[in-house]
Backbone:
């Protein structure tokens, strides 16, 4: 049984407030035969400066240190890739550091940048992430990804990461899904939703108009997960600029961007799911121990926590993050979320880990329509829309960039700039993509607060990045 | 003449024999849509790594001898005293003391059952298991962890009793030397090279 000390459960404190003032991203795609990684990073950076209505050179003058997220050196076949990008961005001799935490790399890189500003080390930092996943074919890519499992105990078992999630899907489906076909259809609905939202995002790699049956008839990768349950393998870059209050005010004075308060927290858990020890469920502010007392009776087998059905790292990241930001109920306090839908099953698991639904009831977030921009059952705005970018399933999973892309997506809603960034005909043309005739605004009206969850491995690292309009802080 | 890279250790130093890399020429990548202009280059690389199992070596050696080892914290001052780990953990994650190696083979034969499973139709490069691969996660009485492995015969089901089998003939000295079959499987039905 794992227990935590009082010291370990301390809510993180920042020495001063930190703000996100702008962000940018490249086009995302499976391959860029005509572009080097630095070109994609420069695309992201110039977009970030454009959103502040200043030149890249002017923005660079404010930057004091740099944080680079690039997970897999073996994918891009370049050690010290951070140094290459830093030089090409013309940011020498500023200090920089590379961050690598698997799928959570983007979120962890933001975490490092936030701490640099909060501590006073820097007043303005660049956070940039990217991944180059097109230098090997897909089979070899799957092998390289599987190297993020334990190389002696797990990776040789098929060299495919989907398998490690499929065992969780099977267990979750049996316990909390009660082996019902309807649960499997709910998983498929997530893929339909995310590929569907990607249709309205010119940056997205996999826009598709699908039905639940399309997902259920797609090829099996690792039963019960099928090809359309899985995230993409992508290339692309994303960046964000984090500042203290004075710098944020200066940088945004001529811009539509409002500085957004940012709180980021992180959690971790074993690389091997095999090593997860039994423990009591750590509670979030909107939960009580009482509500989980009979979990094992309601869902036989569900009392083993986190077992193969929960992600302790996500729960801890939410616990710290909510404490920092003053969130007591994510469904009430947040207006949108971007979750780490590496697979449809991990999306559902995360609903519970971050307290959008209690353990055992994640499916209800989808089935109720709450997770949609527009609730399909009521025609009214969804209570807490998720993954309007298309997520990792529809938009991209260019690993080092993913958590930053998600954060940018949340920010674009709070800035009320989603339509401008996604609907501009010129962007669609520039990316050689066709804007659909039924293009629909997914702007969350009146968005004040949002959260992005960045997640690695089978839950080895998770970060929660919470953005708030400073006029709508909770504490 | 080329031979696979091989290594052994003498006086705590690696002694290497054979070729640890092979040279293959680069080839240009050209754009068929734009006058076959140069876009890039292939970078072939075949290389053999030298990997130490360290304190886990005894586990992998024992598989080839038909034994399943685990470890246990026996530190009287540790809150986790008595906790049994498989995957094998060299040190207790709580007190960081050295764990005791124990033989779990008989317990596995008596109590192993499937916690969860999946059937894998696709694999990444370098996979050597036959597809579909039946991944199983196995729980044992009195053990705190849930081991990932694969089922060699039959169809996996929740709570199904399984027993370990070991590649004692022609072992690979990897985790693939351990597999599982349904309880009651006959010896003559085991895959080639495996025994109970």
Residues:
């Amino acid at each position: 049984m794992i227990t935590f000390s009082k010291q370990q459960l301390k809510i993180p404190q920042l020495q001063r407030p930190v703000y996100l003032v702008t962000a940018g991203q490249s086009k995302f795609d499976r391959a860029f035969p005509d572009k080097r990684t630095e070109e994609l990073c420069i695309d992201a950076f110039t977009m970030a400066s454009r959103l502040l209505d200043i030149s890249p050179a002017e923005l660079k003058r404010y930057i004091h240190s740099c944080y680079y997220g690039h997970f897999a050196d073996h994918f891009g076949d370049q050690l010290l890739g951070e140094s290459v990008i830093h030089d090409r961005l013309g940011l020498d001799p500023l200090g920089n550091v590379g961050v690598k935490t698997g799928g959570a790399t983007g979120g962890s890189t933001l975490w490092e940048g936030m701490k640099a500003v909060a501590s006073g080390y820097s007043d303005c930092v660049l956070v940039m992430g990217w991944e180059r996943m097109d230098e090997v074919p897909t089979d070899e890519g799957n092998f390289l990804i599987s190297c993020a499992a334990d190389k002696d105990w797990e990776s040789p078992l098929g060299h495919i990461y989907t398998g490690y999630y499929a065992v969780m899907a099977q267990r979750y489906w049996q316990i909390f899904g009660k082996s019902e076909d309807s649960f499997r259809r709910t998983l498929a609905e997530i893929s339909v939703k995310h590929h569907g939202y990607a249709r309205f995002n010119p940056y997205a790699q996999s826009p598709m108009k699908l039905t639940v049956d399309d997902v259920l008839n797609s090829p099996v990768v690792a039963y019960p997960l099928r090809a359309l349950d899985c995230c993409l393998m992508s290339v692309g870059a994303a960046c964000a600029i984090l500042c203290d209050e004075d710098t944020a005010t200066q940088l945004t004075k001529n811009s539509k961007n409002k500085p957004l308060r940012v709180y980021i927290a992180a959690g971790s858990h074993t690389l091997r799911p095999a090593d997860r020890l039994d423990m009591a469920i750590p509670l979030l502010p909107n939960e009580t121990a009482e509500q989980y007392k009979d979990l094992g009776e309601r869902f036989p087998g569900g009392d083993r926590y986190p077992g193969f059905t929960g992600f302790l790292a996500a729960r801890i990241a939410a616990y710290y993050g909510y404490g920092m930001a003053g969130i007591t109920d994510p469904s009430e306090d947040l207006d949108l979320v971007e979750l780490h839908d590496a697979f449809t099953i991990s999306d559902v698991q995360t609903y519970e880990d971050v307290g959008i639904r209690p353990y055992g009831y994640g499916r209800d977030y989808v089935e109720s329509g709450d997770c949609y921009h527009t609730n399909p059952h009521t025609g009214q705005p969804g209570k807490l829309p998720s993954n309007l970018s298309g997520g990792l399933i529809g938009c991209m999973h260019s690993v080092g960039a993913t958590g930053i892309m998600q954060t940018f997506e949340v920010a674009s809603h709070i800035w009320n700039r989603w339509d401008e960034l996604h609907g501009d005909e010129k962007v669609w043309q520039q990316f050689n993509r066709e804007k659909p005739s039924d293009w629909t605004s997914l702007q969350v009206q009146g968005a004040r607060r949002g959260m992005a969850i960045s997640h690695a491995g089978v839950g080895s690292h998770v970060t929660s990045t919470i953005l708030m309009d400073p006029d709508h802080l909770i504490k | 003449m080329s031979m696979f890279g091989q290594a052994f250790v003498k006086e705590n130093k690696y002694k290497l024999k054979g070729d640890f890399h092979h040279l293959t020429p680069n080839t240009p990548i050209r754009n068929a849509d734009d006058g076959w202009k140069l876009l890039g280059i292939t970078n072939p690389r075949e290389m053999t790594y030298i990997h130490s199992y360290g304190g886990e070596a005894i586990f992998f050696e024992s598989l080839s001898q038909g034994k399943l080892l685990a470890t246990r914290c026996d530190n009287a001052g540790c809150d986790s005293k008595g906790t049994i780990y498989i995957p094998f953990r060299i040190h207790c994650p709580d007190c960081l003391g050295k764990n005791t190696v124990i033989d779990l083979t008989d317990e596995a034969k008596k109590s192993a059952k499937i916690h969860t499973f999946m059937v894998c139709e696709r694999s990444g490069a370098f996979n050597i298991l036959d597809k579909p691969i039946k991944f199983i996660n196995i729980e044992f009485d009195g053990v705190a962890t849930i081991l990932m492995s694969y089922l060699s015969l039959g169809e996996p089901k929740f709570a199904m009793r399984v027993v370990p089998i070991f590649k004692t003939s022609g072992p690979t000295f990897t985790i693939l030397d351990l597999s599982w079959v349904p309880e009651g499987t006959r010896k003559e039905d085991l895959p080639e090279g495996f025994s109970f």
Observations:
- The helical segments of chain B are 57-63, 105-111.
- The longest strand of chain B covers residues 113-120.
